[in-house]
Amino acid sequence: MTTDNALIKVENLTKSFGDLEVLKGINAEIDKGDVMVVIGASGSGKSTFLRCLNLLEEPTSGKIIFEGTDITDEHVDINLHRRRMGMVFQQFNLFPHMTVLRNLTLGPTKLLGQSRADADKKAMELLERVGLADKANAYPNQLSGGQKQRVAIVRALAMNPDVMLFDEPTSALDPEMVGEVLEVMKQLAGEGMTMVVVTHEMGFAREVGTDIVFVDEGVIVEQGAPEEFFGNPKNPRLKDFLSKVL
Amino acid sequence: MEGFFSGIAQSFEKTFITDDRWLQLLNGLWVTIQITIVAALIGLVLGFLIAMVRSTYDMQLMGKKCREPKDYLLKALNTICNIYITVIRGTPVVIQLMIMYFIVFASSRNGIIAAFISFGLNSGAYVAEIVRSGIMSVDRGQFEASRSIGFNYRSTMLYIIIPQAFKNVLPALGNEFIVLVKETSVAGYVALQDLTYIGNLIRSRTYEAFFPLITVALIYLVIVLILSFLLKKLERRLRNSDH
How far is residue A208's CA from residue B139's CA, in Å, rounded to a whole number? Predict the structure, then answer.
């Protein structure tokens, strides 16, 4: 699977918080169009791994090569690369002091130089896609959790990213709202968006994932296509984990 | 009974009418307002700058080693800010005012400028801590969301953190300005004829304590009430996103 045109290539990534070593050398490759689903018990390091990909967590050592550039290099302007990597958080993190529409257009107008009118138009199209055009002028606090997360997804999409990172996007939602968010993510994957998803939704992993990764104690212990991964798990820790969550 | 009323009328006349004392009170009020407004502006600007330094340090450098020259600069600035806040909050404002007037401005003895600067510096220390607490109270996720979009630290502060922090601290900031109005009443120590000074002057000239002091108290009260009213209006306007 080693190709030079990998969109993201992770080499020997480690991350420590003080004395606690959370990631102990991760190697991974994400090709264009891949949907990598990262699973693992809480505290396994899977969220830290995801957050290292756009340097929200600064890796202790190792390389992250995104579109051919090692973004861990301190001479690289990480802000330019983050524009190409959308991120969706567990807690939505919408900007509460701005309308839904402004949440979507802030990045494109301030960073990409789009005119307010162009950005508004594109934002409305995105909101239309997730069925929230009527909420354009609402404030985030007026939305339900599912609606907030759908807005958060299109806010990231408004920047036209090459990859979308999802950090447990449905974990903070009421059960009846999980479906609407997963639906949007499925659509996105269907359109060929490259995605890295940390989740506990095994149904989603099986159905949408192209590459499933099991992280345990800071290392990837098993990785594979969903059929093989779920149908014939080899690692005892993975077997144990799957028996608990499936 | 008649004697009582004519006594009141006489006191009233002595306090306000004789020698145009109402005009003196008005002039005193103007001095108080000037000091308050200029000091509040200085305090606001200074407080915001210090809060930026302190919270930038807290977020980017605390517990880490300095690596670049600008890290050392930030660390030095943070230390200076800490000392400034400690000294200002640890000493009475009237002493700071006298030091400014009798030592720093010893040659010119410019009371009003000394007052502008002293009260401004004093207020700045309190505003700094208020604003910093506001910045720290904004959820960390807001910062991460903004950075993940590609905004740098400065833009994140400007567009995302400060607007929310400002809204959070508005009541505390308003309180600081209310305190400031009343603190300026020690301006008389450096020969400024502010509202309190004039009130006390009239008391000593007329041997009437009641009217001058109660009048001065009422004027402060009215200023504070007006200020509170304006702040409430501003708070309500900023709250439109919290439905």
Answer: 32
Joined together, the tokens standing for residue B5 give 């009323």
- Calculated CA dihedral for residues B138, B142, B143, B149, nearest 10 degrees: -160
The encoded tokens of residue A228 equal 């093989």
In angstroms and rounded to an integer, the radius of gyration of the C-alpha atoms of chain A is 18
Report the chain A residue with the minimal C-alpha distance to residue B161. A95
pLDDT tens digits for range B135-180: 999 999 999 999 999 999 999 999 999 999 999 999 999 999 999 9
Task: Give this prediction's pTM.
Answer: 0.85
Partnered with residue A66 across adjacent β-strands are A8, A69
> Which B residues, 139 through 178, put their C-beta within 8 Å of a C-beta on chain A?
139, 141-142, 144-152, 155, 159-160, 163-164, 167
In one-letter notation, the amino acid at residue A185 is M
Cβ–Cβ gap A93/B139 under 8 Å: yes
**∠ CA A15-A53-A239, rounded to 5°:** 70
C-beta of residue A105 within 8 angstroms of C-beta of residue A158: yes
ipTM of the complex: 0.92
Residue that is written with structure tokens 């162009």 in the block: A118
